[in-house]
Amino acid sequence: MKHIFAILLILVGIPGMASGQDVTAHVDRTRMATGESARLSVTVAGQNAADVDTSPIVDFRVISQGTSSSINIVNGRTTSKVVYNYTIIPLKTGRLKIPSLPVRVDGIIHKTEPIDIFVTKQPQADPEQSDIFVTAEVSNSSPYSGEQIIYRFRLYSAVRIANAGFKELPDFSGFSAKQVEQKEAFQTILGGRKFIVNEVVYVLMPLSEGEKTIERAILSCDVAVRRKDGQRDSFGSIFNDPFFRGMRYETRIFQSKPVDVSVRPLPEPPPDVSFTGLVGHFQLRTELENREMKVGDSATLSVTIRGVGNIMDAGEPAIDVPEEFKTYQDTPEEEITVGLNGYQGKKIFRKALVPLKPGDFTIDPVEIAYFKIPEGEYRILSDSPISVHVSPAEEKKPMEVYSGNDEHLPKSLKRKVEFTGRDILPLKEGMDVLKNRRPLSIPFYAALIFVPAFIFIVLYAMLAVFKKTETPGTIMAERADKAIRDACRQDLPQVEFVSRLYCALVSSILAKADVKGETLTAGEVETILKSRGYSDEIADEACKILTDIESARFGGMEMDSGGRSNLFEKTRNIIRTLK
Length: 579
What we know:
By secondary structure, this protein is of the alpha+beta class. It is built from eight helices and 30 strands. Strands 21, 23, 24, 25, 26, 28 and 29 form a seven-stranded mixed beta sheet that branches. Strands 11, 12, 14, 15 and 16 form a five-stranded antiparallel beta sheet that branches. A hairpin with a 4-residue loop joins strand 28 (367-372) and strand 29. Helix 4 (472-486) runs antiparallel to helix 5 and helix 5 (494-513) packs antiparallel against helix 7. It is flat.
C-alpha cells in the first residue's frame, strides 16, 4: 500500500510540475502621471529561454530594456531566474491595466497576473525640481504657410548621465524637417540649480495650412544613482560602480509633451503684386559687368537674391532686356546654409548680354514680390535701372600678305627678313635632297600595328581580373569581418565590446542588401533577410541576437566572462550563417 500511495503522489504531482513554472510580473510603481514612465519586469524561474508576449498591453507604450539573470546559492540549494525588463509609458489617464501576459517556456504557455496602474493628468512635481527632465518647443506656434520655425528638444540634467539617445524621434508629419548640426552642451541655472543642457534642433517648414501636432519624442539614457548602503548589482561586483564610490547607472525613459502648431494661410496678394512664393526677409541686387560695350562684345548681367527663409524656392525673376541684345542663359548658383536661424543664403541668376546695334539702352529694374515675416505683409523688391552705352565695333584692317621675293616688299620688312634669315637654315629645294629608304616588310609592319594593341588588351584584362570591386556590399562585409575580429580582444571594455558586435551584425545584414548604413531595427533586419531568401528561423534568430546586443549596450548591466563569450559566439555563428 505504501508503494501504491507513493506512485499516486507522483502521478498527481506531474501536472503541477508541467504547469507550475514560476512566472510573475510586477512594476516599480502603480501611481504615475502622464509623461512619466515605469519599469515592468517579468520574472521567469530557471535559466530556460522564454518568449514574453506584450501585445495585449494597449494602454501603455512598451519599450524593451533587455534581460538580466541571477543565480543564488543558499544552504547548498541553487536557484536561478531570468528577468525580462520593459519600460512602459501611459497613453492616457485614469485607471489603466496591464493585462495577463502570455509567457511561453519550453513550449508551455504561462500567464502572469494583471496589474492596475492609476495615471493622473497633472505632473506630480515641478520638472525643474527633478534631477533630469526634457522639454520640447517651437519658436512660433502659429506660423504662416511656408514660414520656417525652429523646433528645440532639450535634455536638462543635474546629475551624471550616459548613453542618451532617442527611442522614438519626433514625428514631423506635415512639415519638411532638417536637423541643425548639434552644438556643444551648455549650462543654465533653474530654480537656483545648475543644469547641463543637451539640445537637438530642427528647422521646420509647414507643407500645408491647418492644425498640426508634433508628437512626443521618447529618449532613453543611463542616469547615475547612489546605491543604498551595502547594495550591490545582481552579480555582486563592485566594478559596476563609477569610480568605486557607491554609484550605479540606471536606465530611464523620458518623453516630451506633444507640440501643437496652427499654420495660418497666406493672405491674398494685392492685384498689382506678382507673388513668387518667397516667405521670410530678402534683399535684391542687380549688376552688369560692363556698362560701356561695343557691338559684338559680351557682358554678364547678374541678379542676386539674398535673405532668410525659403530661399531655396526662389525662381529666376523676369529680366526685361532690350531686343537689341542677344541673351545667353547661365546655370543659377546658390549658397544656402541651415543654422539656428533657419535657412539663409543667396541665389544668383546670370545672363550673358551681346549687343547687336550701337546706341544707348536701358535695362528696366528687376522686381520680385515676397511675404515678409514678421510684419505679415507683401513687399516688392526693386533695384535701379541700368544704362548701357554701346559703341560701334572697330573696323579691322585687311591683312597684307607679301612673298619673300616680292619686289614691292617694304624696305623695312626686307631688312628684317634679311637679318633674321641668318638664324634660319637654308632650305633644300632640289630633288637631290630626297633619299630612297628601304621598304618595310609586311611582317614587321604588322608587328608595329598589332603588338601594342595586344599588350594593351592583356594589361586591360589583368586590371579587370585583379581590380578590387568596391560595392556597398563588399564594403559592409569587410566592415563586419573587421568588427568581429576586433571583438575577439579580451581587453576591450564592455561598451566597446558590444559596440563591435553591433557593428559586425548590422554590417553583415546590410551587406546582403548591398547598401551602406550604421544602424538597423529588428523590423528592418527581418525585412532584409526574408527578402534575400533566408528562412523565418534565421531572421528571427538574427532579430533576437540584435535585441540581446542592444540590451547589453543600453541596459547598463555588467556582463561576466561567460555572458560575453556566449553573446560573441551567437553573433559570430549568425554572421557565418548569413555568408
